[in-house]
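Subject: for your reference before the review

Hello V.,

The reviewers asked for a structural picture of the protein, and I figured it would be easier to keep everything in one thread rather than splitting it across files. Below is the amino acid sequence we used in the manuscript, unchanged from the supplementary table.
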Amino acid sequence: MRRYLFALVPVLLTALLLLSGCGGDVKKDARIQEFTVEDIPNDEGAGIQLKWTPLDKSQRVIQYNIYRGFSPDSLFYLSKIEVDPDVGVVGGSLNYTDQGFGLLIEFETAPGKLKTEKQQVADGVTLFKTIPRDPKFLAEVLPHFMVLGDIPVQKYYNQAKRVEQESPEGNQVFAGYRLSAFNAVFARLLDEKPYYYCVVPVTETGKFLPATEVKHAQATNNRPDATAIFYSSYLEDKNEFRFEWTPPQGGNDIVAWQPWLMPRNLLPLFEQNQKANATAPDSIFHAVWQVGSIPIAQIPTPYRGQVLYAKAVSEQFVAPIPPVTSLANYIPVLSYMDVKGYWNAALGRELVIAQSSDLPKLPHYEVLDKTNDKGDNLIISFGRPFAFVSQAAWKNKANTKLRLNYDVSENGHQSISKLRFRFFENDGTLLKEVIETHPDKTIFAHFPKGRDPHKDFRVEISALLVGEKKFSDIAVSQIVSWEESSSRFVGADLSNHDQVLNNIYYDIFSRDRLSDFSPGMRIGALSRSYDHTISYPSSENPLFTMVDPKTNLVLVDPSFLVAIDEETGAGFEPSLFKKDTVAEVEELEAQINELKKAPKNESPKAELERMQQLDELVAQQTFVLEHPAYLAGKDAKNDRVWRKIMRRELDMNSRSYAYKLLVTDGQGLWSDEEDLPDHDPSKKPEFMHPENEWFDTTKWATLIASIIMGIMVVVALYRARRFDLYIRPIAGLEELDNAVGRATEMGRPVMFVPGWGTLGDPCTISAMMILNQIAKKTAEYDIRIISPHVDYFVLPLAQEMVLTAYNEAGRTDAYNAEDIYFVSDSQFAFSAAVNGITVREKVATIFYMGYFNAEALLMTETGNQAGAIQIAASDAITQIPFFITTCDYTLIGEEFYAASAYLSRNIELVSMLKAQDYFKLLIVVSVIFGTIISTLGINFLLNFLPVE
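And here is what came back from the structure prediction:
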């Protein structure tokens, strides 16, 4: 019978396996059904979007792998979208956008050679892992993408190798780099080229489910969408339009803008045309509404930015503008065209009719180098710093004591020493004046009894800056209004120089010496400064041209722009290799000589073109030959010195900035520096280069304190050598001999637990020094010491400290390295191990020295129940109460750090301990003195101390 049962078991197991296999087949058959690959609409041909319906959460999918290829039979891993297998996907669909420069090769994870996925789940398609870091394979990829690399600056300039390639136009020179020199390689889709995609679901067990059908699309430049936000204003006294608009999404390739005035009765026709444009081919633009509308001006794209500004004066009007009285019958419309000639239009907001006096006023500003930095910041500062009220509330039942909270708007280079608050009724009656001697952003004001507690009031705030002797006559004014919903006052409109700042913005235009002005730094007018970070370049991003088949070097253009002539626009673009730059200058000379020779029977038009080209080349030659960097580089002995000279000039030009300011209400009413009465159009931009400082001048107090501390250490060391300095008895350390002695009497081991500190923590260093002293005692009494560790980096140090102690005690033979060992780096696993040692080894004395977390109570409770003497020392303030409760002795805070000096009585350690005590006394005296003088309104000590 038993034999039959044994024979039946394999049959049952086989049946179970078959049943489970059928279930697996059901899950394997799960496949994404709805999968689309389309060009991103209304963009400049920058990307492709994928969309699919995720599988049901019963499939336990943890991520969706996305594969891309440039041929339908080979796809490479591109990216992934992670999902929660328990919840699934909320929303019913997943999207992925392949746009811009995406990661192509990441050297930390990319394979060295082309590798296929182990699980091939796509029909008729081979799935590969990511693009390998193989130059030969990269050469096959380059024709299908726009590829650039991220290479450290030092490698870009120091590791370039000169490579010549033959071409029909002659030999071309490239800079060659090893592919491994790059941090990463990025790729962007090419316009009008097909790309193939599929998506593979991956379960939480790592199993690949069947891939989607492979589909393809190509990135195409489409008509821009109609999402532009357009504001406009008309200045009646100047007969001038001003425009402010946000470009449409994906509108980076728009080259022309045209504002219109459209009669209101054409609005239905405009909407009908726009609806037709949404489905029409990109080349067809339905704009019948333009027949009855008035074009204002034609505006080329002035710069690239999130917000664009332009103005149209009467000389630029394309058609006559209707009288001001009838402008209300028109709606502004903005039409725009991209580089492909595709048009679209957006309806603007209501036209604002104003006078030039209604324009927001430009504040005085200055550009300053930020002090105490490493040379990577400039500050744009707007006038004086000021304070403004954020909220206020009554603090007593009589509604006479008002607590007022305020904020300070710093200007980046001046500090406020005192503030004066003057409170007024709406009729101008003075209610109260309060002087804030230390700006801590809270003041209290006492108002008269009987005043309506919900009545608004006005506050004028003036500042006394550090170094000034009296308050400024310039004060900001603010209305403070009662808010019924929150039952408190809130700060309302803030006026400075008779201009309300709450609803206007500063748009800062910036440029370096190699580019044009563009906006991008918009801040609210309540801010008094803008910190412009100008980072040092850490990497370069050259475009890949090809891969040299002989050397497998990646080839890039060796030239880089160093300087531009402000007057002629000529550029100095040297090569990484000196001799090629010299050759280009000689070739430029030959081209000039050739253009100077007038051909026979030259037409006037051809002559004009030849002279224009000649002027451009002469301007470029003059600029290059007279440029200081070129003159200095001519004497360079090698390419390394040449590049150093060019890089110095590049740094000066690319990190020197000039600024312009524009003030706007955000709705088309704006003014810039051209509106200033003293504006000089011929004035050249003033550039500033950030400079680094050797010393942080805000840390003088730290330097002085360090010197004083050093002097105290020397004095204490001198006294320690001549006298026996007194150290307060520490009960836990005094009991050390008794604790080890008790273990000796009981014949049980001593355990030392060092806690969670790492080698860099002061608590760990102090614990190791205490361990050394305890080990000397155990060696002297011939008692076993056990020390479990949580950090394997601390373990060798602990073993060395114990071994040293045993050597000094002459008991090297008693040292056992196996008693000092690593346990676990998991919190409660370590705690369980310590508790187990306490119980199994029947430990008589336990020392807890170091940083501890929640496991402290678990360990000390176990030691308490085992009857062990427990001495703890820690700087973890959250665990001190538990140590005090469960341990016999506890060293708190600095007692822990003083333990090593206390036990060893080492002269150097004792002198350091006494010097710290002297310095603490000095700190206490300074705090008392500072409190007294600050109470009296004297702030020099507060201003002198660094703010952390």
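For the response letter, the relevant points are probably these. The longest helix spans residues 907-935. The chain is about 30% helix and 30% strand.

Happy to draft the paragraph if you're swamped.

O.
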